[in-house]
Amino acid sequence: MVRSSAPPSSPPSHPEASTPSPASPPIWRPVPRVLARSAATRASAPPRQPPPTRLAHRTDDPVPTCERCVSDVFPVSIPSPEVSSITLGPFTIHFYALWILLGIIVAATLTSRRLTARGVEPGVIFDYLLWTVPLGIIGARIFHVLTHPNDYFFEGAELWKVIAIWEGGIAIFGSLLGGAVGAWLASRQTGVRFWTFADALAPGMLLAQAFGRLGNYFNHELFGQPTTLPWGLEIESTNAAWPLGLPAGTLFHPTFLYEIIWNLIGVAVILWLERRFRLQWGRVFSIYLIWYGLGRIVWESIRIDPSEIIFGLRVNVWAAIGAVALGIIINVVQRRRHVGVEPSPYYPGRAWVDPDAPSGDLVDTSDPDAPESSDVDDRLSAAGTSTPDTTTRS
């Protein structure tokens, strides 16, 4: 309970607070009852009234008082990009696709360096890319269509748009499933252990997903609930995902930014845990599943874009819970099955031998065409000479 600084005999001049004392400057200013304010709205706002000294939270206010205080101190927001694509002749290049492509390149580069450090043949990452990228895209599309059936299966719908991936609509959890199948096939082809590749890929996956979320930012999509926090995201009211009934200028939680920060922290955590505990046999990848799944549970819970609801939860929340559970199972099972380090990054009998590495065996470097010493002696005897004595005499 907040007590007034005025004497008990002095009746308060405000119904909710006492008259402020000159020695006690006000520390809080009320914020007008709006869900959010754009820069133009702030500029045209009327002068504020003298603040009370008591912080009273109205129960009918949809925005928490703490958010209003922060927004009042830092009156800023995150603007959405004005463009999302560029046109080159007859082609339209979407920034979303460029960010995904950049994420794939970064993840492949890091994974290749980690595999080579484990003794895998350099360049083997390209064999994996040929399998994981196409199957990952197919899996991502299938997962999206199955979890958004009302967008593709209705009376009068054009069924061919199920494969119109260029119009948007892929899911990360589907790409994980399809990519896992591709990685297993590539491991069969190259001889590299599946779990060795998965462990090498783990930090790169988080980096790739961070880049992909920048693509969502350029697409003005997958934002969260309304907020007045200073990092609220500006979204146009004509957006297809704009909630009905909200006034123009409302700001939203930038869930893309939350996930980027979470993923970058996860990269550092995974690398530290791997080095600290010498994790192998898929346990590094299990940490990735747990870390990403925990973060995704939170971000999905505050998103407001349409989604299928199963037992009160968005379908992607269930998928994230499944990722956490799978990560725990992999960690526990692999820790019990494999108590030592991996003997080789390759399956038995499939190891790659570096031609430039010394083998440790003795190698005959003599000239096979050079005559042996006995042949030289025979030729000298036939000529009436003898082999010169090179022994030092004292």
TrEMBL record:
Chain positions covered by the region annotation Disordered: 1-62, 351-394
Quote the biased-composition stretches of kind Acidic residues, using this chain's numbering.
364-375
Q: Which sequence ranges are marked TM in the entry?
A: 93-112, 124-143, 163-185, 192-212, 256-274, 281-299, 311-333
Q: Which family does it belong to?
A: Belongs to the Lgt family.
Q: Where is the composition biased (Low complexity)?
A: 33-46
From the UniProt record, give the pathway where this protein acts: Protein modification; lipoprotein biosynthesis (diacylglyceryl transfer)
For this entry, the protein name equals Phosphatidylglycerol--prolipoprotein diacylglyceryl transferase
Q: Which Pfam families match?
A: LGT (PF01790)
Q: Which PROSITE patterns match?
A: LGT (PS01311)
Question: What UniProt keywords are attached to this protein's entry?
Answer: Cell membrane, Glycosyltransferase, Membrane, Transferase, Transmembrane, Transmembrane helix
Question: Could you tell me the superkingdom of the organism this chain comes from?
Answer: Bacteria
Q: Name one GO molecular function term.
A: glycosyltransferase activity
Q: Where is the composition biased (Polar residues)?
A: 383-394
Entry binding sites for a 1,2-diacyl-sn-glycero-3-phospho-(1'-sn-glycerol)? 213
